[in-house]
């Protein structure tokens, strides 16, 4: 079956994400392809939109600007927290912690600054503000099973 990618199709693909400097962030080339249903939230809409119309065997590379990828960093996503709230003795910029959010889930935050009293934590996505090179190879496209 050689159908093209549209909403409500199950897509199986290999992909890689890299930064403009060529640094690879994530890739499953050389491994089994992954499957998802278009619109299920697995991919950001800016990534999904570029897959529309592709067919099995197609390969492509897309440049995804921040506005269509992980967004721009937001100043209000950087918060100062009391130093005493951290058990860690040797806090340093770049350390990643998991914090509870209001909904009972977890959200990652990266330490950006540390002083005697406060710890600045950046809750922006690590790829926010970055242009992403998105490379794909479509392995399979099929109608999504309706449950």
From TrEMBL:
Enzyme Commission no: 5.2.1.8
Pfam family of the protein (one): FKBP_C
InterPro entries: PPIase_dom_sf (IPR046357), PPIase_FKBP_dom (IPR001179)
Protein source organism: uncultured gamma proteobacterium EB000_37F04
Bilayer-spanning residue ranges: none
Keyword Cytoplasm: no
A GO term for molecular function: peptidyl-prolyl cis-trans isomerase activity
Reactions the enzyme catalyzes: [protein]-peptidylproline (omega=180) = [protein]-peptidylproline (omega=0)
Annotated family: Belongs to the FKBP-type PPIase family.
Alphabetical keyword list: Isomerase, Rotamase
Segments forming domain PPIase FKBP-type: 8-82
Enzyme class: isomerase
Protein name stated in the entry: Peptidyl-prolyl cis-trans isomerase
PANTHER family named in the record: FKBP-TYPE 16 KDA PEPTIDYL-PROLYL CIS-TRANS ISOMERASE, FKBP-TYPE PEPTIDYL-PROLYL CIS-TRANS ISOMERASE SLYD
């Amino acid at each position: 079956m050689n159908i093209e990618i549209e909403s409500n199709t199950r897509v199986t693909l290999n992909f890689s994400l890299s930064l403009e400097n060529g640094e690879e962030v994530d890739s499953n080339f050389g491994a089994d392809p992954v499957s998802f249903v278009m619109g299920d939230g697995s991919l950001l809409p800016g990534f999904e939109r570029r897959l529309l119309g592709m067919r099995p065997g197609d390969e492509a590379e897309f440049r995804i600007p921040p506005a269509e990828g992980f967004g721009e960093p937001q100043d209000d996503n950087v918060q100062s927290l009391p130093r005493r709230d951290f058990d860690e003795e040797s806090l340093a910029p770049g350390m990643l912690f998991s914090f509870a959010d209001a909904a009972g889930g977890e959200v990652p935050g990266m330490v950006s600054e540390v002083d005697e009293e406060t710890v600045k934590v950046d809750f922006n996505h690590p790829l926010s503000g970055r242009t992403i090179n998105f490379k794909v190879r479509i392995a399979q496209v099929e109608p999504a099973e309706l449950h």
